[in-house]
Fold each of these.
Amino acid sequence: MEEKLEERLQQIKKLLHAQQLKLTPQREATLRVLLENQEDHLSAEEIFMLVKQKAPEIGLATVYRTLELLVDLRVIEKLNFGDGVARYEFRSRDHPHHHHHLICLSCGVVLEIEDLLGDLEKKVEDKHNFQIVDHRVSFLGYCSGCRDRAKI
């Protein structure tokens, strides 16, 4: 795991250098937190609290700027699950499109599912002569645990 983390960090460092940007200690600390928590959909504040453990001198504004830079570079995605909180996750290197999410309206759990719209996307492009570069889908409902508890 540590080896993959370091490999991904080096790839991002090369991307930054290609844009004449540096991997500052603050950016590295933020990236490490994101890499170590890839399974989670962390908010900027949650990321900040974790980064602060690694780099106590870092400020919230620095974390926000780093996150926005990484979004601009298409390293991470900024997500909104309808709760008014922006959350962040890494973009997949293996797939051109984002995966989809199942969001429980009761407990707030977010589950990831694979991209389901490849064929539909091609049809839309062909029919409307429109080049699609990405799409996002979130399904809202109730997870099995909440359904069992509420007998939904």
Note: The domain at 1-91 is CATH 1.10.10.10 (Arc Repressor Mutant, subunit A).
Amino acid sequence: MSTAVFFHAHPDDEAIATSGTMMLAKSAGHRVVLVLATRGEQGEPVEGVLAEGERLGDRRTAETIRSGDIIGADQVVFLDYEDSGMIDQPTNDNPDCFWQADVEEAAKKLAGILTDESADVLTVYDSNGGYGHPDHIQVHRVGIRAAEIAGVSRVFESTMNRTRILEQMAASADLFADEGETAEEAAERRDMIENGTFGLPESELTHVVDVTSVIDRKRQAMMAHESQIDDSSFFMQMPDDVFTHAFGSEFYRDRNWQRGDADFRTTLFD
């Protein structure tokens, strides 16, 4: 059996992006380790969710532990950098934020975990961090370097299938309109995705993991992050079939293999 380290930027990223893969890996007997660069201090909490004096980073840490329990993670580790916030925000200049971290120094921290765990597999994000968030881009940079230091050769970029997202947008236009999205906003969203800031085109992806068998637990892992995702959130309001279509497949690019005309591989452990 193998050990897989899933490296993420903030609490809830793991639940949304790779929790199904993690659950299936655990059920197959592999060791699953979740590493987070930050505690998500710059997130926007659901109104009224925090107790008086409660810090968002503390809440999100606790939520991650609950998510990890649902997923079945053997260990949850925080690198303890501060959340950098969204791109071009003043928080990007915080010397203690992950975006400002020295890549070599941060990579050595992660490499220490990879070595201690005798990791066989590492997941990071694509080079644009999926959608351009500074901390996600830094996960890519730090993760790739850490794998080099620790000698982990099986590195997968967790990402979104841009081709499928555009198809889903077209199919769910009425649903977004019902949520109040204007035609202009829809056009902006499509333009953002088409111009390369969201995921990767399907032709560049190598692996798709079907997680529909654990989709209910994936939803529970997402809901564990109640400071960010509550019952009224767009994700949680999706009908079951729409949620399954949106989140029932998790996509990756193998940095050491180009798919070409071959079929998608369906596991990170072949």
Note: The mean pLDDT is 92.
Amino acid sequence: MRAFEYHAPTTLNEAISLLQEHGEAARPLAGGTDLVVQMKENATKFAAPSHIVSLLRVPELGGISFRESEGLRIGAGATMAEVAESSVIRARYQAIAEGASLVGSIQTMNMATVGGNVCNAAPSADIAPPLLAYEAEAVIVGPSGRRTLALEEFFLGPGKTALATDELLAEVRVPVPPPSTGSAYDRHTPRKQMDIAVVGVAAALTIAGERIERARVALGAVAPTPARARQAEAALEGQAPSDEAFARAAETAVTECSPIADVRGSVEFRRHIVRVMAARMLREALIRVRSR
């Protein structure tokens, strides 16, 4: 590992000032479950930072809160364990809790943060599809103040986000879900734990009467960024929920993804998994609506 200077700011403004001062040579450190590994491996595509700005002592980045008038706030420094165990998230945003519960081991969940997972911008990030299914927004802080961006626009490509070098993700905001909404997230991996998604699918359904009022389907690991399957969503809205409708929507979702082939799965295999898992997550979301 190359030598670096370590900074431990205690306020958000101090952290932003350090990033602004050191520019491309600086990297923020949250839980470190991605950054530390990258620094140790010294990957050829990774420019080792000479300044590390730790965010562990910045209280503004922590916490999880919910208000009926505002929705859910997840601080960028909140850990995956905190998200997975949050009673309000488990009750109102089931898919988000499920995504957080799948990030690595128990030890990893206790270190990895929502901000780190989102800002790492891996197409396979488990927290991303559930957040997209709930139409989350990123709250970004920099020298010019705060700005809000739809999370779907935050991801620009593998490892690339809309953050400038002197900006930080401060929190993620998630709207209050409509009544009679249920959601689900799962992924396919060769191993049950300590693996990354070959395919990840989140689904959220809002039911009004006997019809699907609103549908959200988000995919991970099958495109350069996590993304919503908007055509599949449109195909469901206004329809009566059924296995046939879910199968048709899943088939549409297959046409909206663009997976790659690698040692973990072919393009055809990944498309097949999208087909199977999209229908399965939609069925699970419906079960959860009806169980309320």
Note: The longest strand covers residues 199-208.
Amino acid sequence: MSTLVCFHAHPDDECIATGGTLAAAHAEGHRTVLVVATRGERGEVAPGVLAEGEALWERRIAETYESARVLGVDRIEFLGYVDSGMMGEPTNDGPYTFWTADVEAAARRLAAILDEEHPDVLTIYDDHGGYGHPDHIQVHRVGLRAAELAGVPSVLQSTMNRDHLRTLIEAQAAAAAAEVENETGVPEAAAPEVPEAATEAEFGSPEELITHRIDVTAWIDAKRAAMAAHATQIPADSWFLQLSDDEFAAAFGAEWYIATGSPRAAGASFTTSIWT
């Protein structure tokens, strides 16, 4: 049996980024551990989800435990830092935020857990946190240092495949344009527009930098159920959960990683297991 530790910034990150990987590892008999840096206090709340007087952070902890139950996580730990909010917001520099935490001190807190678990693999985020969120960037910094302190043999940086997402979005936009043409007989006047988030340099990583493609379609139902557990952030009418089964599998059926210190040779295939 091997051990996987996934280090994340906020509740719900665990299922969106690594839910399939966690579920697959559990199904294969491995030990899985989830460490979350903050309690997600700055998240935007879907209307009507919280009870009167209920604190968001309390609900998000409960949501994390339910998501982890669905994914088969064996241990959950919160480091207790405060959610920093999106990059550039005044909350970034607030008291006890993860963004302002001393990297060495935070790394030693994470390393204490790693020393107990002796993981074969630790997942963090890429160097810009996937999309530039300060807490995600800090997960990268703290995670790398903690792995060094604890002697973790393999550190995988969770990311999004920017090229794959762009292809999906372009195909979806083209299909929508074709549907309009079929209904009206009039072709779209302009090429489908690709959302800026799919093209900006801070969103995901180019495919050439990615080393691992983990096929998680066998655990896609568990991943979707884990996402649904985070009702404050992913309500039933959200884009995530309104996708058809095929669309959801296309968008979330693979999880992507960059192996720290081990780039993929030009033309080489993706590695398909986190354990290699």
Note: Confidence is low (pLDDT under 50) at residues 189-201.
